TrEMBL record, chains A, B, C, D:
<feature type="domain" description="Transglutaminase-like">
    <location>
        <begin position="129"/>
        <end position="209"/>
    </location>
</feature>
<dbReference type="Pfam" id="PF01841">
    <property type="entry name" value="Transglut_core"/>
</dbReference>
<dbReference type="InterPro" id="IPR048930">
    <property type="entry name" value="Bact_transglu_N_2"/>
</dbReference>
<feature type="domain" description="Bacterial transglutaminase-like N-terminal">
    <location>
        <begin position="1"/>
        <end position="101"/>
    </location>
</feature>
<dbReference type="Pfam" id="PF21295">
    <property type="entry name" value="Bact_transglu_N_2"/>
</dbReference>
<protein>
    <submittedName>
        <fullName>Transglutaminase-like</fullName>
    </submittedName>
</protein>
<dbReference type="InterPro" id="IPR002931">
    <property type="entry name" value="Transglutaminase-like"/>
</dbReference>
<dbReference type="InterPro" id="IPR038765">
    <property type="entry name" value="Papain-like_cys_pep_sf"/>
</dbReference>
Length: 222, 222, 222, 222
């Protein structure tokens, strides 16, 4: 299934600074970038680098003088996906076999203090038989217990705030989902997607639990 | 029903300081202090004052020199109690009719950040018909969801920590119960009791929701 | 010196609720209310009660149906004040002699977690000789170290947030000042004032340290 | 300069689990591991992997049955070091030129919430001319303002707690130093060292600010 994605950004810059953007579509086994195009107006030197996994692309711009600039990125991506056979979902990799890179997604982080949520997560989700069922139960719990309220949170809001105050936006839902997974030793990480048919169009925060790539919203929207 | 209560305390004091003790048994409509006796050895000047409600007694000792002292308090109290008729429990006072003194137990406090727990408390307990049922549901929820682990918390632990980390001692259970009540506009406050047959004997933290005086542990033990 | 103060408020009420207002000017030894006038339009039943100190007036309105109402309060107050002789300021009451009512302003509270700021407050302010000098140093420290930024904080912001993030509004400045005083065993409390020549006119958050009544902003503005 | 380092650990394991150890000495341009020896008794299968930088070694053990085991690691390392010429210290790499791997040490993390300390760090340290001087000032500020008290903190203590409560151990000092560096866009990270002549011998928490490798304690001890 092919998608056209596009984002346009513009900035007024008051002084020398460095921007790091993460807007490039990902190239993975289930998502092929067929075409992509980036324009910066006026042209500004930049370099593109990849994160630890060798796939997530970041673009870095160095601004030396106050200026205005705008940027436009568009791509055509072809996505394939695999329906997980629920009855066969537990041929999963245990922690001890994990690639060391993936093991790093077990640690608590700034917005996902999984170390504080271990008792809660074990009590609520620990009894599900498979990792697949646990992650599914976590996304359902979030959907049922956290209220979506635009503007209710900010850049300092973390999983602890969200589980306490029971309100947030997609970013907060994703942080909480990650924290609850990690509390169960399920590696999980955040990603930002171009959300299909989201209106108004915007980047959308999701999380994926490793080896299953269940996006919170894919589940919620269906 | 009569109880003998007793507490013995001893201190090594290294420099000038002021102690404020709250060990006197309360004299209320349902608890009469028949006899009480306090000895401080060696004798130290002190005064006894009552808190805002005119009933809770506090004793203040001024120590001016390094010293050792011990203190012993004993009392005989006669308790009467009334079984609440559950079917008739909702002849309760609404917030707007509350005595202004009691209204002060609606506010969030250092250990009971009820302002952060409003959505949670409404969702979990808001649908119960009466205040009595709400408070009962709160104490049951705490009993079922928070693990009692001696030494797991300290003097900085608050209701937010307890609802997140799901572990604590009686003090933390009481703080959380108070916060959840206040979040529903039910005035509630902390008290310390001489717990009957607690072994080893110790002061015991409880909370009471106003106009009903349901102690967390009375419910838990039955 | 006489002041005319006035406040006008209006509300759209969507359902039954109870309001508690604290807009009456205080009657104290240094402030006499010569005249005051309150109108509620349309007329709504209300009662006025005083807080623990017998002086702060609160007004409670019970709304039973959705409605719109407006309220206007005006008063003429005569203020006298005493210039504190700094050289003679230490004929102050020590904690052990404090009235029990005032002792309650030594405790940490929801927005003033003085228990977490003891080391900081002792290190920064403990060496000043008198309570007067300590409070003065606290207000100066806040003025020099916390940035005033309108809209930077909200109803959940507490002294801990403010001392960490170094930004806030008058409410946050007052909470931090109170916490730093209490950490030094100086009773302190919050009050809201009609600020003289504040533009636009608004209620103004201040704090007073007991037995001296030094308002943060009186100092800041001079 | 050559050092012999050694660590011995023993565990009683009650059920199946996975251990991840980080006890191997690092091989870098300024530290050469001449010899190293690891014994696990009884022998247990394990694999050694490196973290993102390709140098930090982690060892993973899979335990399948309850058991007791002990482990001993020893190494001879040869350290060389370069005295930084303070007058020439500012031929440093700016953020925009940083290797992408190093850029990841600019982000806030679980224990180093640099996003909350930006105003403080800029005000206290932003005026120093060079990165070297800034990091030096940060370590001195920590040394002068945070009290070292063994046992005062635990595995949940973060930089925010430490800057507020002003007490901690080496781990907390390092977390705070990292947070203050990152708040100034100086990449910084945590490391654990074999501390020379620490008595009793123990692993020691330090931090290094990238491109300068200034350990907190090297400075403190000299």
């Amino acid at each position: 299934m092919k998608f056209n994605v596009k984002s346009s950004l513009s900035y007024n810059v008051n002084g020398p600074t460095t921007f790091i953007f993460n807007i490039h579509a990902l190239n993975t086994s289930s998502q092929t970038v067929l075409e992509e195009n980036l324009t910066i107006d006026p042209a500004i030197n930049h370099d593109v680098f990849t994160a630890h996994d060798g796939r997530s692309k970041f673009m870095r711009l160095k601004i030396q003088e106050p200026c205005n600039f705008s940027m436009s990125y568009s791509a055509i991506v072809d996505m394939s996906y695999k329906i997980i056979d629920e009855n066969n979902s537990e041929n999963l990799v245990s922690v001890v076999e994990l690639d060391s890179y993936i093991a790093s997604f077990l640690y608590p982080s700034r917005y996902c203090q999984s170390d504080k949520l271990m008792k809660f997560s074990f009590k609520e989700f620990g009894h599900y038989a498979t990792v697949y069922d646990k992650v599914l139960a976590i996304t359902e719990w979030i959907y049922n217990n956290i209220e979506y309220t635009s503007g209710s949170t900010d850049s300092q809001t973390s999983a602890i705030d969200t589980i306490t105050e029971r309100v947030g936006v997609c970013r907060d839902f994703a942080h909480l989902g990650i924290a609850l997974c990690r509390a169960l030793s399920i590696p999980a990480r955040y990603f930002t997607g171009y959300a299909y048919q989201l209106n108004p169009p915007d980047f959308h925060a999701c999380f994926e639990a490793i080896s299953m790539a269940i996006g919170l919203y894919l589940i919620r929207l269906n």
